[in-house]
Amino acid sequence: MVTATRPTLLGRLRDASDTMAWDEFFACYWPTIYRYARHRGVSEHTAEEVVQDVMLTVFEKRDVFCYDPARGRFRDWLRRVVSNSIAQRRRQPSQRVRGAGGESGDGRLEPADGEPPADATWETAFEQALVGALVDAVRRESNPRDFVAFELTMLQGRSPAEVARLTGMTRNMVYKARRKVLARLRELGGGYANDGRLCNEARSAMRSHPGRAVERSLTARIERTMV
């Protein structure tokens, strides 16, 4: 399981001039924040505002970003920031909505009956975002045709014969491409127990991704704020 935030990324966030670090951080964590906010019952628009709030908070705290496991996990700190933003947004009369499990007047977040506690929901969203970022990283560094073969067979469940017909590859080429991409995915996500679990997590992450339209909207919003 991908359980640790990379210390090198946190360290790089301290340098405001390291745009790659900020781009990497945004790409990795915005789906977690957005999905969690939506789960807590806010609108799509307000969820985008929550992402914006959190990213600004992270940016403002960059001078104290120093990886120290003894002080607790980064994901727990991030969840508190997200929860605070959701509560603050809910207190605004123009954006007050009922959460998934109801909303108290003081902005506390209550889980709905039969739903997992908010912490469990956050852990799931956090893991899915990390695996999604892992898949995107492998996609960017892979030969496009190799990744298509991997995606169609392992993530969409299509047969090698069908993929060969769709891509113009031979079945042997499809098998080789799938093995190559999977090997790299396993190398980067080595904490997972086996191929099946890793691919299942990757499928879940891809299905739960909020979508490219939301990502474009958020990117534009963040860029306007950071100028």
Distinctive features:
single chain; 227 residues; mainly alpha; 68% helix
Can you give a write-up of this model?
The chain is mainly alpha-helical. The protein has a domain at 7-116 and 211-226. The chain is 68% helix and 0% strand. The radius of gyration is 19 Å and the shape is elongated. The two termini are 37 Å apart. Mean pLDDT is 76; it is low at 96-116.
SSE topology sketch:
Blueprint: H1 7-13, H2 19-39, H3 44-60, H4 74-91, H5 118-141, H6 144-155, H7 160-167, H8 171-188, H9 195-208, H10 212-226
Helix pairs in contact: 1-2, 2-3, 2-5, 3-4, 3-10, 5-8, 5-9, 6-7, 6-8, 7-8
Quick overview of this protein structure:
With 227 residues, the protein is mostly helical. It has helices spanning 7-13, 19-39, 44-60, 74-91, 118-141, 144-155, 160-167, 171-188, 195-208, 212-226. Helices cover 68% and strands 0% of the residues.
Q: Count of DSSP E strands? A: 0
Helical content band: 55-70%
Number of helices: 10
Can you tell me the overall shape?
elongated
Order of helices and strands: HHHHHHHHHH
Percentage of residues in DSSP E strands: under 5%
- Termini Cα gap: 37 Å
Query: Radius of gyration over alpha carbons?
Result: 19 Å
